[in-house]
Amino acid sequence: MPGFIKIATKSELPDEGEAKEFNCGDKMICVANVAGEITAMDNVCLHRGGPLGQGVVDGDKIVCPWHGWQFIAKTGEAAHNPTARVALYPIKVEGDDVLVEI
Ligand code: FES
Questions:
Q1: Alpha-carbon span 46 to 86, nearest angstrom
Q2: Could you read off the pLDDT of 18-56 as tens digits, one per residue?
Q3: Residue 101 located in a structural domain
Q4: Across residues 94-99, what is the average pLDDT?
Q5: With contact defined as beta carbons under 8 Å apart, do 75 and 42 qualify?
Q6: CATH of the domain at 32
Q7: Residue 1 pLDDT more than 60?
Q8: How many domains does the chain have?
Q9: How far is Cα of residue 9 from the mean position of the Cα atoms in its chain?
């Protein structure tokens, strides 16, 4: 049954303009804070599998730390090729818990 899984507490969320990796079940996901809005996407870069959650946030994009591919945080689209996109996941904060639906 799909459902929301707790991945972190609110205080562990990335600061504004940063991204972080979190375990979610048997996956890693990339959680980013873009101007105060929290997003969750697959952690695996479509280029060669770089860890997006170890990248940086540049404007509305997450930049892969390996070779610089950029993904739009709200859509998961690769900035240079909108037909390539990483999966986005619903994320919400309930009380002190951060929950993601895979
Ligand atoms: S692995 Fe992400 S840009 Fe190459």
A1: 7
A2: 999 999 988 999 999 999 999 999 999 999 999 999 999
A3: no
A4: 97
A5: no
A6: 2.102.10.10
A7: no
A8: 1
A9: 16
Name the residue of 41, 45, 81 to mutate for ligand 1: max ligand atoms within 8 A of Cβ.
45
How far apart are alpha carbons 11 and 44 in whole angstroms? Answer: 24
Task: Return the structure tokens found at 19.
Answer: 């991204």
**What distance in angstroms lies between residue 66's CA and the mean position of ligand 1's atoms?**
5
92 in ligand 1 pocket by Cβ < 6 Å? no
Give the integer Cα–Cα distance in Å for 40 and 71: 12
CA of 37 to the centre of ligand 1 (A): 24
Contact 17, 33 (CB under 8 A): yes
Give the structural domain span for 90. 4-94
d(CA 63, CA 67): 9
